[in-house]
């Protein structure tokens, strides 16, 4: 703790090079890490370890008799066998939503960062503004928008994109649209941050060297925005895969995702080993996808 | 600053290793212990009653389940009259939104015999049955409940999970039956119609509460929900599965079917009587239907959890609500079935129309067709609930 008292000194002595007094600051990085590490340990590592343990409990245990540790690795294949359709669906929906979000989000971030001029701050506020209300309220609002007797469905019926009895609510379309909408800001903001720092001289240079607009985008803008793109897609994809609110409110049982199953395992069916096993399967599946993606996409970022 | 931090990256490896080792060690420790059983007994988990010295009561209930003053929403006439008469200070919290969710909230305290900070909780039949099974509920002192003994509806006495009426007292009851919106659909008469009529396809919801949905389906097959076999349950479940697979049923819901029904997004549903009466006030073409095959009756019950320290105060409040005049005051606001005999006469003075409503004061013939759901043991509950959840999608 005493090192924190020295913190103002760091600012005060900024003229003298830090390398001159190495001993004094050696502990500082660790102390700065301490709150974050303690937080992660208490609220992430410990619960995760507990979850890992719970996923191996005796599946025949119950609330009144308790659960004993039997290293029941069979919980994993059993859970996967029972709920693989929901697993597949989660990745399919999140993937589709990601593509939609990229198609909308990239141009949006690009315009805000490079072309918006004095409107930039206003546009940024517009991207963030929905986050001022709760996730749940926003999703409930979508129920009104997509309502069977709402103007949107009416319009789509009039132009024959939907049959006379067609609907949006309670279909996969509604769930994917909900996911796209709810997580879009997580994609746009990191993208904006990296596009905003884009060095426009490079773009000009590319044009001077007779690259077409498309070539400039593909060879200059896109690679330079890659860190934001990677961060944005991850921030979008990971929560979207585990989401269950959109499927719950905008879908039907046939659209339920793995999050709904985990929710029901823990709260309704009280099958803790299965719920824990499913959670771990989800975590590992997402980690596998993320690592695969980072290997391919992230290799020349650093 | 960058240079000062640089050495950390190498050391991070070391720290990481130590951290991982610590994690594994924790994992190993946790792995050793498992989760202890949650069963409690009165002797093993003694609750002290401080009502004699502390004039306090913490009461947890569902939202919009207590009358409020029309002019001032912060006033709750029936509760305020209790506070005035008894001098007991009531902390009223609307923190029960869902039986399962609430169970998740209090299970860690109750399974470890710790106080939940609540003296009186209102929960549905099957959840109360589960908590009684786990030994989490305190026995009530009959001597403190003269109004309950005198006025509780006979059909709600000696229920399978509480023979002798010593543990749970109904707060309100209700029917689970069918409902439809006459603006978007023709009248509906039976569960079979709900599950098969082509014009309702994709515009039907059912309840996530297994006892209500499955109870109505069992009845529609001519079976008795108070006493059914596994084969009969499976028959009913197959019927439900067909309706889900064909896309007839759009969703399974809690209370949230009500706005969808009002908007016409859904045309018909399995729903609760009180909700539909309230929707009916705004739009008289939304109607509740008791299917010919029979209707389900359920109650939300007041229970005193273990380690609650104001049991006698809680009993005083329970008894207050079994005064017919108070019960009528409450029923006029919430519109569910009033479990108190004599309240109908009191209701005549408040609102004769409500007093004549068979969904608030059902007659004997109606009560005779109404069924509760069989009391399940833990294994049955889990087996049935798992299969039901698989059909409803999770």
Describe this structure in words.
The complex is a heterodimer of chains A (302) and B (394). Chain A has helices spanning 2-5, 7-12, 22-25, 28-54, 75-115, 120-128, 135-145, 151-158, 172-196, 200-208, 213-224, 226-242, 245-250, 258-268, 272-297; one strand at residues 66-67. With 302 residues, chain A is mainly α. Chain A has a domain at 89-257: MetI-like fold (Orthogonal Bundle), CATH 1.10.3720.10. In chain A, α9 runs antiparallel to α12 and α14 (258-268) runs antiparallel to α15. Residues 1-18 of chain A have low confidence and may be disordered. Chain A contains 15 helices and one strand; from the N terminus they run ααααβααααααααααα. Chain A is globular. Chain B is built from 17 helices and eleven strands. The radius of gyration of chain B is 24 Å and the shape is globular. β1 (66-67) of chain A pairs antiparallel with β1 (35-36) of chain B, so a sheet runs across the interface.
Question: Short summary of the structure?
Answer:
The complex is a heterodimer of chains A (302) and B (394). Chain A has 15 helices and one strand; from the N terminus they run ααααβααααααααααα.
CATH topology of the domain at 89-257 in chain A: MetI-like fold
Coarse shape of chain A: globular
> What summary fits the major beta sheet of chain A?
none
Q: Point out poorly predicted stretches of chain B.
A: 1-6
The CATH topology of the largest domain in chain B is given as D-Maltodextrin-Binding Protein, domain 2
DSSP E strands of chain B, number? 11
CATH superfamily of the largest domain in chain B: Periplasmic binding protein-like II
Strand content of chain A: under 5%
Q: Count the beta strands of chain A.
A: 1
Rg over alpha carbons of chain A: 25 Å
The fraction of residues assigned to DSSP E strands of chain B is: 5-15%
Compressed to H and E, one letter per element, the order of chain A equals HHHHEHHHHHHHHHHH
Text of the CATH class of the largest domain in chain B = Alpha Beta
Supply the number of structural domains of chain B.
2
Largest sheet of chain B: 10 strands, mixed
For the terminal residues of chain A, how far apart are their CA atoms?
Answer: 34 Å
